[in-house]
Amino acid sequence: MTTSRPSFSYDASLNTELHGDVLVVGAGLAGLTAALTAAEAGLKVLLAFKPKDATESNSAYAQGGIAAYVEWNTPDSLEQHVQDTLEAGAGYNNEIVVRQILAEGNDAIKTLMRYGVAFDLDPEGVPALTQEAAHSQRRILHVNGDQTGVGIVTPLIERVKATKSIQILPYHALEALHQGKHHAIVGATLYDSKHAQRRYIHTSNVVLATGGYAGLYLHATNTATDGVQALFLAHQAGATLKDLHLVQFHPTAFVTEGQVRFLASESLRGEGAMLVNADGQRFMEAVHPQGELAPRDVVARAIASEMLKTKHPCVYLDMRHRSQAFLEHRFPNIYRTALRYGIDMATDLLPVAPAAHYCMGGIDATWQGETAVSGLFTIGEASCTGLHGANRLASNSLLECVVMGRQVVNVLNKTLIPNTPFGFNQAKYNNSSHSLKQVKRLMWQYLGLQRSKRAYEHLHTELQKLKNDFPDEEVFTFLVETAVKHAEEMSYSCGSHHIIEKSLSFK
Ligand SMILES: Cc1cc2nc3c(=O)[nH]c(=O)nc-3n(C[C@H](O)[C@H](O)[C@H](O)COP(=O)(O)OP(=O)(O)OC[C@H]3O[C@@H](n4cnc5c(N)ncnc54)[C@H](O)[C@@H]3O)c2cc1C
User: What is the dihedral of CA 221, 497, 381, 467, to 10 degrees?
Assistant: First the structure.
């Protein structure tokens, strides 16, 4: 495992320098919220992200909604939201953090509304609330039915663009972190892929809002792998990586021929969808008292077990008791996508199977995003605060993005770095991609829904071969190595981390 800090050679020919009070890396919901909040606090913000467009993030893909205890929802209470989160998280959560983050729910929703987010309304004109698995109450707010992510990030992106004190840097990937005295952050290098040049950033605050790494699995609901580079750099800079083995598998990803599976949101089950196996039999009622609305890890394992039992590559979501009009209105995105594959959910069953979805593990941080490195912060899915425990409660992650994005601004370093010439230690990585296909297979086969000692042994052997074959591609292999180390350290089953004698795998 690479932990050395390579020395930095400054290439003046590539010199384009920028200064900012804070560099936010990542323009998902966490990064956008942090950038807007920092700008409101009077700070000069640089907002960098790898793709061309800020809408290319997992945040934009979010379907079901954002969970929050809101003051007008009288049947609900903050305490119930806390208890549901602890229960779903298998008690592995940091209860203090759970309480800190969830208590900000009402203000987070108000902030989004102030930024122009138009939540769907109920007939009384207040935001409509739906339910998802393991929530004891209806407390999920949504936008345009099942298009919550894009409905939230679009107005925030517009606001960011209109804010003069935020400089937007699309096509910019984080390449290195620069550290000065006591390893405190003094800047970063970004690689601008559009102009094939490097930009050197002078700042005493870098906020990593770089998302998760579920895309490292063969079957996943998303393709996110860029965040792995940020995790690697944070580790090299001295931050702690925590619980990388805790990855949530969404039970119901639409089974298509491609490997990235389109999500069939949990709110389908919240609105009455039933799960049936290949023989047309319901099976969740026998597994858990909450039936189809049991915690995600329970449902995902039950589905995998039915798939093995019936020797069938999927189970099915049955929504046929709902009208076409309801489905088109409430789940326009999912309904249209299924139709493109010839499935009309009003009359047909929807084939689904589990897929890697969300990373509970990440860079160890406080609820306000502080890491072990002065000036280095992390928020949203890139962070591991203990909010989600061993299994995230549905729709708590968008809330986490907004709360942490707001809170991190309160703890940024106030002392600004003067024009320091570079020459400091830097955390840096080599580009890597050729090994990715192999890495996805390893993660899926050996660090998936079910784990075992034998699976870890296979993983170590195959990983060593991969490292020999791709000696320069350290980022992804580092992630796998750390994740299996964390898995081995947790010798008992807990939430998404389920140990069996012999590892099962399904294709
Ligand atoms: C299909 C799907 C549906 C979901 N539905 C819901 C839901 O209904 N409710 C809910 O709460 N959660 C949901 N989630 C989870 C939720 O969307 C994510 O947890 C959350 O959006 C993460 O936001 P983020 O800002 O932390 O990161 P992301 O939104 O993942 O953004 C990461 C940003 O960092 C940038 N980046 C990454 N690495 C680098 C790098 N090295 N250099 C530069 N830029 C980089 C990316 O380009 C991107 O801009 C869903 C997830 C998926 C995949």
Answer: -80
Q: Which parts of the chain have pLDDT scores under 70?
A: 1-15, 258-260, 416-428, 430-432, 501-507
CA of 312 to the centre of ligand 1 (A): 31
What pLDDT score does 17 carry? 87
> Which residue's structure tokens are 């945040």?
59
Task: Give the pLDDT score at 131.
Answer: 86
Rounded to the nearest angstrom, the distance between the alpha carbon of 61 and the centre of ligand 1 is: 8
Q: Are 141 and 119 in contact (CB under 8 A)?
A: yes
The CATH code belonging to domain 16-246+360-428 is 3.50.50.60
- CA–CA distance from 418 to each of 12, 203, 412 (Å)? 19, 9, 16
Angstrom distances, CA of residue 208 to CA of 58, 226, 412: 15, 12, 13
Give pLDDT, residue 297. Answer: 86
Structure-token pair, residue 236: 């090299």
pLDDT at 409: 98
At residue 399, φ and ψ (nearest 5 deg) are: -60, -45
Q: Distance between CA atoms of 412 and 124, rounded to whole angstroms?
A: 41
Residue 274 near residue 379 (C-beta atoms within 8 A): no
Domain 16-246+360-428 identical in fold to domain 254-355: no
Of 499, 427, 411, residue with least CA distance to 456: 499
CATH T-level topology, domain 254-355: Flavocytochrome C3; Chain A, domain 1 (3.90.700)
Spans of all domains in the chain: 16-246+360-428, 254-355, 436-489
In the residue annotation, 114 being an active-site residue is answered as no
Specify the pLDDT at position 434.
Answer: 79
381 Cα: distance to centroid of ligand 1 (angstroms): 7
Provide CB contacts within 8 A for 299, sequence distance 6+: 133, 251, 252, 275, 284, 288, 292
Q: Which of 58, 131, 391 to mutate to test the pocket of ligand 1 (most atoms within 8 A of CB)?
A: 58
Please state the atom number of ligand 1 nearest to the C-alpha of residue 26.
Answer: 34
**In this predicted structure, what is the pLDDT of residue 427?**
67
Instruction: Please tell me if the CB atom of residue 362 comes closer than 6 angstroms to any atom of ligand 1.
Output: no
DSSP structure class, residue 273: -
